[in-house]
Fold each of these.
Amino acid sequence: MLHVRKRLLKQPFGEARVWFKERIAAPAHSKVRPSPHRILWAVSRAAWFLPGECTCLHRAVTAKILLAQHGWAAELHIGGRHGAKGRFEAHAWLECEGRVILGALPALDSYKRFEGFTL
């Protein structure tokens, strides 16, 4: 997650995206295949121990990479909405088989997905 956050902060998004896709395509080096639940738990726990803020995008990209490396398919979505006082708000979440597995919010349906974004 630290590498994901660093790339999102220091690189243009297009360059970071290439690095993310390379990680997604690379198989895990472990012989153990953790369940999606275990991977999501590990991402959540790691976010607590990293210094600074771990955003929904940091967590979603990290989980997407780890899930893909262990053979689990998930779709990363990013969306936006006008929040309180008309301010723009963005959110990232993961779906697996049409079900939100990371980043569920009570008002998630109020976010309009950014079409054409893939990772």
Amino acid sequence: MHTAQNKAIYHKLQRIFTAMGLPASEYNTHSLRRSGASHLFTAGLPLHAIKVIGDWKSDCVFKYLKPTASCKIKMIQDKF
């Protein structure tokens, strides 16, 4: 975390996860970045748009994507 704003968001998330009964130590702002990118990808948003939203300048966005099984099947079907 680099800014006071990031720290504030992190601490707010920790309180929310704890209130939900989730293990707060397993979640952070990075979790939101990854799940957000994956959700947008699974919803069919083009990769270039996800890169713009996530402020990615390189293809490291691929490290963040975790498509669902049904999304993977659709990607395979679309290729062949």
Amino acid sequence: MSTDCKYCGEHCLVCKCHLVPLNLDYEPPQYLFFMKWISVKEQLPEDDQTILVYNPRASLFQLGYYLKDEDSFYSIESYFAFPLHVTHWMPLPQPPKE
């Protein structure tokens, strides 16, 4: 039996589907698919796309963007444009539907 979740690809700890192993119709909440951090070593975001970034030097999450030409991340929350030390990022979820 595989230990990888068919929904999240993890060991069934992210989407909590391990809590209902006998329910074959279980569908985890959609927001969980957007809540996976992506290492900058594995993949970089699209150029000038607003994303959530993690800056371990400041121990904080913030909205930012990546500029491919400069190979740097920047905060959209700061008046000064200086590169951030980012190790992980994730796309923002889609806005709510009315």
Amino acid sequence: MSKSWFAGLCAIAFAVLTFVGALIDSGPGGSYKASDVADYLKSGHRPVVFVAFYMALLGIAALFVLLAWLRKTIGDTTQSSVFWALSVVGAGVFIAGWALHADRPGGDRIRL
């Protein structure tokens, strides 16, 4: 029996977990007021941030399962190696972006 149903389930899990995690995290960004940031940083926001973080981790794990299945489907070729390398880099960029978003409210104001 093919495991494609599990890869599809992982794709849906990645999409749903990422969306819901970002939705419940809801850190202030863009044009926010100082009072919005103060409200966000109250001690009561920590459980929500941790839940969103673990949802993101589960979503990334599901993404890696999907990408591993896709790599296996491509076969053992140069294309599969390039696909896997680009997939890992893409997932790493996603993780870094999520970390920046969760680390600082109003992350769009970070100056490098």
